[in-house]
Amino acid sequence: MKCPYCSFEESKVIDSRSADDGERIRRRRECLKCGKRFTTHEVIETVPIIVVKRDKSREVFDRNKLTAGILRACEKRPVSLTQIEEMVDRIEAKIQSMLDREITTRQIGELAMEELKTVDEVSYVRFASVYRQFKDINTFLEELRETVILFKEQRPPDRAAFLVVEMKNKNRSEATLNFPFSIFNYQENFFA
Fold first, then answer.
1. Long-range contacts of 176-185, Cβ-Cβ distance < 8 Å, separation of 24 or more
2. How are strands ordered across the β-sheet holding 50-52?
3. Nearest to residue 102, comparing CAs of 60, 158, 140?
4. Residue 46 in this model has a pLDDT that exceeds 80
5. What predicted TM-score, i.e. pTM, was given to this entire model?
6. Which end of the chain is less packed: N or C, by CB atoms within 10 Å?
7. Which long-range contacts (CB under 8 A, 24 or more apart) does 46-53 make?
8. E-state strands within 63-104
């Protein structure tokens, strides 16, 4: 290992420790010429994952792009950086464990949405709205309806209470769906 201070190519390992839950080895080294110490990290070399984009072009999987997309969806939400890193770690582990070395952006987006569903409903809807590129408000509302139903089934009643349905007539000819969270100020008649 070349010394970063004097470029001498010989050094000795002073200390080795496991890092990142055994994913890396951190080594403390000392240059045999100048005596200065430096740290190196040893990781398992993996075959790169190739991402197939919508236009059929290909590029190497970039963890930073995934992190940036999830960060954007979680902006101003009660989601910590630790939670985001853990989500990205789980997504990357799923991708690495796939037999195929190529994955579509659609598959990555679905994995990200699975993770976001369990962490924060609003972040999930934000990510879905960008990722799915809704053609119009109706497709967006259909996704939102499915999300609301899913969250009502998965969450305790106090967390699912962001959906309020008001019945105006006994014959159910008019029902209004209110979204009382900050990113939506919208009402829709279901049965009109």
1. 177/145, 179/144, 181/122, 182/122, 183/122, 183/125, 183/126
2. 58-60, 50-52, 102-104
3. 60
4. no
5. 0.54
6. C
7. 46/96, 47/101, 48/101, 49/95, 49/96, 49/101, 49/102, 49/103, 50/101, 50/102, 50/103, 51/102, 51/103, 51/104, 51/105, 51/108, 52/102, 52/103, 52/104, 52/105, 53/104, 53/105
8. 102-104
Residue 79, token pair as written in the block: 């989601």
Q: Please tell me the distance from the alpha carbon of residue 116 to that of residue 79, in angstroms, as a whole number.
A: 10
Asked whether 35 and 57 are in contact (CB, 8 A), the reply is: no
* Measured distance CA(92)–CA(86) in Å, rounded: 10
Q: Is 63 helix (H, G, I), strand (E, B) or coil?
A: helix
pLDDT band at 12 (very low <50, low <70, confident <90, very high): very high
Q: Look at 145 and 175; give whichever has higher pLDDT.
A: 145
CB 79 within 8 A of CB 88: no
Q: Which two tokens stand for residue 93?
A: 């582990």
From the list 104, 100, 112, 101, the residue with the least C-alpha distance to 54 is: 104
Backbone dihedral angles phi then psi of residue 164, each to the nearest 5 degrees: -125, 120
Q: Compute CA 10 distance to the chain's CA centroid, rounded to the nearest angstrom.
A: 41
Segment 62-99, tens digit of pLDDT: 999 999 999 999 999 999 999 999 999 999 999 988 88
